Amino acid sequence: MRIPYASQRGSVSLLALLIMLAIAAIGLGVAFIVLTGVKATQDFSSSLRAYYGSETALEKALDTITERRFAKADLSDTLAEVAAIEGAIGVNSADYRVTRATNDEVDDVRFDLGWQETKSVDLFDPDNPTSVQGSDVGSVRVEWNDTCGGSSWLEITAVEWTNIWDDSDTAFPEKYYYSCHFSTPQPGSTAVCAAVSNTPFTEAGNYQIRMKNTSEKGNDCSVTDAQLQAYAGQNASGSVKKLRNHIVVTAEGKNNHTKQILSATMPWAAPASGLLDYVLFSEEVITKD
To answer: This protein's superkingdom (predicted)?
Structure first.
């Protein structure tokens, strides 16, 4: 049977329409991919600028803390000054500000120690570093696990001084060695080793406590999940004392709709942290050029 010409023309029109729709769909797909790439590039650029903004705020905060610390400024005034830091970077149009500047208090300090590694904890009031708070601490308790079947050893060094800014009143450090004594862990702890140190906390003063993994060399023994707590009474009795002396700063950078946040933790009285860690002995005068 013969097909009418009009019907053939309609089929060609429909085919042409389908081809045009396919080309339009391809064009839209290509446009979408291109726009997505452009947006991703813009987001990356904004994110990088925001990061530089947050980095700027954090650097300004740390620099302010360092300057005020060595100037023996008041901690609360320093934190207020740091919290007020804000501005803009003219080169990349990024805004920055400090969103948090606090002196955190914690009930315990947690850490891990590889062989011969150390961890220091300062026990004093950073708001009043020249005061004596030693009478507030009667003992410290350390719990830990190890990777050598309970054969680990922990060295605890205690240094006491009456004035954090004047080491002429500093007493000689006292060291004590504790093996892993299996004991019932404190609530919420899974540690199997524990040690309690009472000396020299009977004296009134400020303290630095340093823990060191002194396990036998070659035993591949690491101290893990360690936890230090300070107590008001001896033999880990009485109330748990708050541990302070750590400033937490959080900074935010913003560019367009992108934000970047950085955070840092640093001790307020850093000069106390390395007190009497090393001593040099010489028959001649030592001159530092």
So the answer is: Bacteria
